[in-house]
Amino acid sequence: MPVQILLDRPLSIELSVSASSRLRLAGNSLYQHTLVGIVSILNSGIFMRAWHMISREPLVHFAFLALLLFAGQALFGSNTREIISVDRATADFLIKQRSELLLRKLTQEETQASIDNFIEEEVLVREARKQGFANSSQIRRLMVQNMRFFIAGDIGQPSEQELRDFFTANIQRFKSPRSFDLDHVYFKGEPPADMVSKLNAGADHSKLGDLPDLRERRMLSIDQRRLVGLFGGKIAKKVMTIGDDRWHGPFQSPRGNHFIRITGRNEPELPTYESTSHWLETEWISAKSRELIDREVAKFKRNYQIIVEDTSDGGAQ
After folding, report:
1. Closest Cα to residue 239, out of 279, 199, 181, 305?
2. Cβ contacts of residue 315 below 8 Å, gap of 6+?
3. What CATH number labels 176-266?
4. Span 67-100, pLDDT tens digits
5. Which of 110, 116, 233, 262 is most buried, by CB atoms within 10 Å?
6. How far apart are CA 239 and CA 249, in angstroms?
7. What 8-state DSSP symbol labels residue 53?
8. With bands split at pLDDT 50, 70 and 90, how would you rate the model's confidence at 146?
């Protein structure tokens, strides 16, 4: 049946260029004549014979199937990336772990940083497997370290000027944390009931308790992180609130019972460039490595679909 187009009124075509701009084209006699010409060609016998000849060609069939395959890949192949999922339980564990180390509730930025660090490690573990590194959950941290070295292992040595510029730009980062000097007496089991009184009465603490190493009896410049590592978060909180120089305890930990006396309090201070000579180069290399790793991890993440459950009372983000 011949194709017919009724043009009893002007044709109107509207193209949306943007949300704020529209281009409206009003049909006129030129458009009408053009459409009539196209219809005439479609209805001609020459076109129909040519179409029948082309449609019988195997190459045309092959091209049509290829077009369907490409269209299917475009429609359905976009979500074939590996999934990295951080569920609510994992996120809560990461937040709790970090909070216990800092002895306070995390800020929103610190919460996000804890989750981002976990995602980075998971990405690096999976990329390590692709690179052929040993695949074992028992050496996950080693796999992460290997990948980080693989990415940033070729950083050269900095010049003197680079170190000075780095020190100036990051001087607040190098401020020493608040720390404590303290004496420590430890008992594996139950301590004598009057131990605090004996210590405060002048008993020689170096001859009491079950600590074989004198370095654990008198400890210098112990910051918050080390306090948590040595005694756990609960004891660290109590130690940091001690305001005098008397003995306190017993503080009970999984290891046993502890008695502590603070002998010095060291406030944060900024270092001089000269005093950083033995560690500044290591910090510079670490910062440069971090830049390279961040850049490569951002590329790796494109290979994954990352799903993080919301840690608040809501859905997934």
Report:
1. 181
2. 309
3. 3.10.50.40
4. 666 555 555 545 578 999 999 999 999 999 999 8
5. 262
6. 10
7. H
8. confident
Nearest to 27 by CA among 12, 7, 9, 39: 12
Tens digits of residue pLDDT in 148-177: 888 887 888 999 999 999 999 999 999 999
Pinpoint the residues of the chain covered by CATH 3.10.50.40.
Answer: 176-266
Q: How far apart are CA 296 and CA 300, in angstroms?
A: 6
Q: Please tell me whether the overall predicted TM-score, pTM, comes out greater than 0.85 for this model.
A: no
Pair of tokens at residue 291: 């830049």
**Alpha carbons 278 and 258: distance in angstroms, whole number:** 34
The span from the CA of 35 to the CA of 228, in Å, is: 81
Three-class DSSP category at 103? coil
Strand partners, 181: 264
Cis peptide before 250 (omega within 30 of 0): yes
Of 286, 282, 241, 232, nearest to 262 by C-alpha is 241
